[in-house]
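Long-time lurker, first post.

We've been arguing in lab meeting about whether flavin-adenine dinucleotide would sit comfortably in this protein at all. Half the group thinks yes, half thinks no, and nobody has a model to point at. So I'm putting the question to the forum: if I give you the sequence and the SMILES, can you give me back a predicted structure of the complex? Inputs are below. Any interpretation is welcome too.
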Amino acid sequence: MTCPLKKVSVHIPFINIRYFIYTDFNFRSRTSRDRRGFYMMSNNNYGNQTEWNSTPVTIIGAGLGGLTLARVLHVHGIPATVYEAEPSPTSRAQGGMLDIHDYNGQLALEAAGLMDAFRGIILEGRQAMRILSPDGTVLLDQVDDGTGGRPEVQRGELRQILLDSLPAGTVRWGHKVISIRALGGGRHEVTFADGRTVITSLLVGADGAWSRVRPLLTPAIPQYTGESFIETYLFDVESRHPATAKAVGGGSMFAPAPGGKLIIAHREKGETIHTYVMLTRPQEWFAAIDFTDPAAATARIAQAFDGWAPELTALITDGDTTPVLRPIYALPTGHRWDRVPGVTLIGDAAHLTPPNGEGANLAMYDGAELGKALAAHPNDIERAITEYEQAMFLRSAKVAAEDAEMGDNVAERLAYLFDGALREERQ
Ligand SMILES: Cc1cc2nc3c(=O)[nH]c(=O)nc-3n(C[C@H](O)[C@H](O)[C@H](O)COP(=O)(O)OP(=O)(O)OC[C@H]3O[C@@H](n4cnc5c(N)ncnc54)[C@H](O)[C@@H]3O)c2cc1C
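Top reply:
Settle the argument with this. Predicted structure of the protein with flavin-adenine dinucleotide, as tokens:
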């Protein structure tokens, strides 16, 4: 079906689909090129080797943000140590697919000198996208013609590329930070769960939503957004779940409905479908569900999707893994802080938002930008951090403002939008 309507800027969880949704609503539209221009403004190139006269940069957290920072610093000859709470690189599954955008995530990988390795892990065809109504009607079906600017990769493979690009010993696994003490003059003492400590003159919090570094800069605490995701997996879908495999298609599938409901499914590597079921409910509603009883839990969640096409509800009820509840938290929009010597934040630690397809991309971009700023001003760390923070506050506020423009309830708005398109199509 073709959608005979005008282009609209739409931001939905996990994916930026602002380039290819068409509607009869008169919203402001943007292109991938507009965004790339915005990011390129602050994307200067610096030389490769840097005279560094300080302690190694101390990075807390080996997520995509912290590892990108460590890699860009390494490219510029600046030593860094990454302290990670998890005991090993393989101790936790790394989640599903990420679309890496040509206007931020890919620019970070360019700065890290890892574009060739990145191209090697791209999953062909996964930029395809469909939007379905609750009864299974296909409202939008976009194929992946290979020209999109947001190729999909497995998060674990991307993280592995970054890990492999660092000198041995850069990441210290099993180092959970429990407290940090300011020593004055921009120096900090970091204490780990086993009692060990390090003292550093440049501390970077890349430790995600519940950052231990953030309180040094700001009292802000993430708040529940009113939405939670329930995560499920279906394996061997072509043979075991053919109707659902057909409904999801070869890339991403979104099925929104009024009442704050949205099913998002991704065709991952192999014959796996990874699903996030989004529900707008208070946390007490979820607390009343026993997630240790997968059958009862998924049956309760599926009740909220009563009357939906069975190939869609199968994504909830036929899961091959125990469903995982993921309440969504966010920092206040426009979150920022006054400069505190010797410490800063990148990624979710700095600007946690509800999933909007930008979080991992922004974390990597932050890491690359901070790395480049430090390389540009090796003898003036405060100037480097100030430049990085000012640009970071601006871009994260811009993304948050675009999300806000979409309104509080994305599922509601998408459902309304595509219901209208479908009605027109039927007339
Ligand atoms: C359900 C869901 C789906 C998402 N999907 C997408 C998507 O499709 N695309 C996208 O771009 N973004 C997505 N995001 C957002 C994305 O996951 C985050 O924005 C991104 O991972 C942030 O990277 P980061 O490096 O800042 O933090 P993280 O990835 O959270 O990494 C932080 C690291 O710090 C470590 N750490 C934490 N505390 C400590 C401590 N005290 N001591 C030492 N180490 C510590 C953690 O173990 C972790 O390794 C999604 C988020 C959610 C919740």
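For your lab meeting: DSSP finds 14 helices and 21 strands in the chain. The pocket of flavin-adenine dinucleotide is lined by residues 14, 60-66, 83-86, 98, 176-177, 206-208, 212, 229, 276, 326, 347-349, 355, 357-361, 363 (CB under 6 Å). Whichever side wins, do check it experimentally.
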